[in-house]
């Protein structure tokens, strides 16, 4: 009986951790499906969550200059206007299609 350790690449470990964290898959189910030890899965999930926390902290620490901030605001306002136009068009179309024809 050999107790040979399996080595999984980082991409695979990250993917499996994402399945558990983001898709809500249970580690027990992943253990059965993939044949990976439960303790390994828990370790990968813990590492993935730590990476995400660090990435979120780094993103929050990003400082914007006034012109960068203004550019972001302008692009969000433009996207908002475009979405509002789409909503208005859909409202008009809904009104047209739901009118009772007068015969």
From TrEMBL:
Does Cell membrane count among this protein's keywords? no
Keyword presence, Coiled coil: yes
> What's a Gene Ontology MF term here?
DNA binding
Q: Provide the transmembrane region boundaries.
A: none
Source organism superkingdom: Bacteria
Q: Which is one Pfam family of this protein? A: HTH_Tnp_1
The record's Gene Ontology biological-process terms are: DNA transposition
- InterPro entries reported in the protein's UniProt record: Homeodomain-like_sf, Transposase_8
Point out the coiled-coil segments of this chain.
41-100
Q: What is this protein called?
A: Transposase
Q: Keywords assigned by UniProt? A: Coiled coil
Instruction: State the Gene3D superfamilies in the record.
Output: Homeodomain-like
